[in-house]
Structures are given as C-alpha cells and as structure tokens.
Amino acid sequence: MRSGLTAVALTALLATSVAACSSGDGVGAAGQGGRLSVVASTNVWGDVVAEVGGDLVTVTSVISDPAADPHSYEANARTQLALSKASLVVANGGGYDDIVDTMVNALDSPPPVLHAVDIAATGQDNEHVWYSLAALRAVADEVATRLGELDPAHAADFSANADAFDQRIGDVEAQVAALRERVAGARVAITEPVPLYLLQDAGLVDVTPPAFSAAIEEETDVPPAVLSQTLGLFAGGGVDVLVYNSQTTGPQTEQVLAAARAAGVPVVAVTETLPAGQDVPGWMAANVAALQEALAR
Questions:
Q1: 139: CB partners within 8 A, 6+ apart
Q2: Distance of alpha carbon 155 from its chain centroid, rounded?
Q3: Which of 49, 127, 214, 222 has the most neighbouring CB atoms within 10 Å?
C-alpha cells in the first residue's frame, strides 16, 4: 500500500519556524476567538471538520490543491508548526498519510489524532475511505464527539452540525440506492482503487485486472501482459464505464483512457482531494450524478 504523503527531513522541519498556513493562522484552543485548531491531512477531512466545527474551529488542511498529486506531497515547516498548535488532528490512516503521524510523534506534546480508516472499520484493504459514505458519516460523528470533549460548552453545537452533515450524506446515499436499482451489475474499469467504495455501493462490478490497478497505485510499471489484458477489456466490449483518478496519471493510464474513448466507453474522472469551491456532500453527489449520466448512455 503506497503512502500518500511523503516527508522531507524532519530535522529541517523541527529547526525551522515559520507562520502556520491556515485560514486562522493555526491558533490553538485558547487562541483567536477561543476557537479550536484542527489539522487535517487532506482538504476532504478538513471539510468534514469544518462542517462539524463551524465557526468554533480553525481548520488547516495539509493537502488542498486539487491539481496536485497527493502521493508526491512533501511536508514542510509550516505543516510542522500547524501541528504543534493543533488541538486535534484528523488523518486518513491506512498508510495513506503516515507522514502526519511521524510529524505529530516528533512533537514534545502531541495532539490527539483521529484516523479515518480506523473509525470506518470497513474490513477492506482499501485506504480510500472518504469514498465510503458510511465512513464519512462515522468520521463526522467521531469528530463531533472529540470536539465536544475539547470544548464541552459547545458539544451540542458540534452534535447538531454532525447531524446536519449526516443528513446531507444520507441524501447522497439515497442517490446511490436509486442508481443501484438501475445499474447493479454494470461493469466498471478503474485506474486506481480510489473510488471503489462508492462504486461498490452502487452495485458496479470491478473487472479491472487487480495487477493493473495495484501497479498504478504503487507507481510501478504495469506488466505488458496485464496492460494488454486491461486494454482488451475495452476493445472486447467488456466494460460499461471507466472511472479514472485524474490526479495521478501517466503513460499507461493514458493508454487506458485512450482505449476507452476509442471504444466509445463513457469515462468518469474522480479526484483524491476536494475540488475548489465544493464541499464533501456536494462533491460526492456530483460523482454519483456523473456515474448516472455515464451509465445512461
């Protein structure tokens, strides 16, 4: 399993002091306006925290550029400083963002860390749990609980915000259930297992050779025979839709994308981080709508 975030030397990070990079300058619980400071490894979890915390929290997302490849990220001294001031850290876990744990553990007084993979407890060897709607709800509820412990006076506010978030995710789950009724059993190819939880919930069957998506995720060359087998899925009419991760592409994924288009197979792009101007429930709803449109062709 590939680690999503990679580090530069921690000694340099710990020796360097710069201003924190966040909307609220990384203030702690007793800082600006008394807000709690929370650091999230990606803007996906940062948005979940912001939805639950509202105006009572300041959120710093380590990865927030929708055009960046999260797997190539190198942490810096700003991240270290933000973590040092955090009241709570929300990481993905499962090997995706180990650098966050490494940096937190290097602190003299580390803040508590929530790992979404542990909270989700999907029982699957797939760390991309933010594409699981059930996992999103579970993490939001746990964030509300932890924020309430840190700021008991506003525990009811956090709980209410989590309930509102859960309701919006519930609306997306209804979308998925309706889609499943229409397309269950449809065949999907993927470039990486990023969207698999959502695809599984929609009843889609992944027909991608496991060795292909594993090689792409691990950033290793796809064996020629495996690549040929994957490309043959499209020429042979064995795929109803291709879902590809637009943030991590290369020559072999481009070949698959070209094969799909040449065969007239609909293509749906997904990302690992939250696109600019969107929130998580709206983003997931848009992903479901894109799948619905593609499979209706």
A1: 45, 48, 90, 114, 116, 119, 120
A2: 26
A3: 49
Q: What CATH number is associated with residue 82?
A: 3.40.50.1980
Q: If 0-12 CB within 10 Å is exposed, 13-18 middle and 19+ buried, where does residue 55 land?
A: exposed
Q: Which two tokens stand for residue 87?
A: 């009241």
Q: What is the mean pLDDT of each run of 10 residues along the chain (297 residues)?
A: 46 33 36 82 97 97 72 76 96 92 94 98 96 98 98 98 98 98 97 96 97 90 95 92 91 95 97 94 98 93
Instruction: Give the whole-angstrom CA distance, residue 260 versus residue 239.
Output: 9
Q: Are residues 131 and 97 in the same domain?
A: yes
Query: How far is Cα 147 from Cα 166, in angstroms, rounded to an integer?
Result: 16
User: Measured between alpha carbons, how far is 219 from 195 in angstroms, rounded to an integer?
Assistant: 17
Same domain, residue pair 9 and 79: yes
**∠ CA(66), CA(67), CA(69), 5° rounding?**
95
CA distance 171 to 84: 37
Q: Are residues 21 and 127 in the same domain?
A: yes
Q: How many domains does the chain have?
A: 2
Domain region containing 228: 182-295
Euclidean distance between CA atoms 10 and 77, whole angstroms: 9
Its pTM stands at: 0.88
* Stretch (H or E) spanning 36: strand 36-42
